[in-house]
Design brief:
By secondary structure, the chain is mostly helical. The chain folds into 2 domains: 84 residues, no CATH class; 94 residues, no CATH class. The protein is built from 6 helices and 2 strands. A two-stranded parallel sheet has the order 1-2. Helix 4 links the parallel strand 1 and strand 2.
Length: 189
Amino acid sequence: MRTLVKNVDIAEADLAKASFTEAQRVRQQKILSLSRAYIDNVLSRENVDMASITRYSRALAPLLLANAADAANVQIEALDQAVRELSKKLKPGEFEKALAVITGPKTPREGNLQFQYFVYAFGPGSAGSRVLYMESIFDREAALGVLRTVLNDRVASQAFFGDTYRLERDLMADGATVELMRRFGHLGQ
């Protein structure tokens, strides 16, 4: 905890050098002062109770979310600029056929900034068809390997079943559902 106090001191000293707007600077100072007060409180006691952790966390939550919103705006602007530059290099019609592969861990999948960006850029119905999220893949070659499998499966799925996305579900899914419904009494008499 004493190391954290030193880190708060360093952060406060560096705050003036950072390229924040005035509102962002005030927000960071509030985060640091709330954190210092909480750490000092913890150091003065022998134990930490959940109520104090919750009060501290809830006081910081809106400040952290405001920081996250600012960071999202910066990332979206950079991503949008990169996509606009790339789309200028594409032949007419290529962007309309493009796929976006987003890689990352499982936990932040819901609402992933890059995934959302491409769903908005490509339009309704693009999630899962043109915008793919690949969990726990961080290597470019591994992502390309999965993408090749997905694209091959889509061709085979269309050829066999007349449904481009049928092989993106377990092949046994339909039969399994019927059998499980039967076994567990969900099909009626």
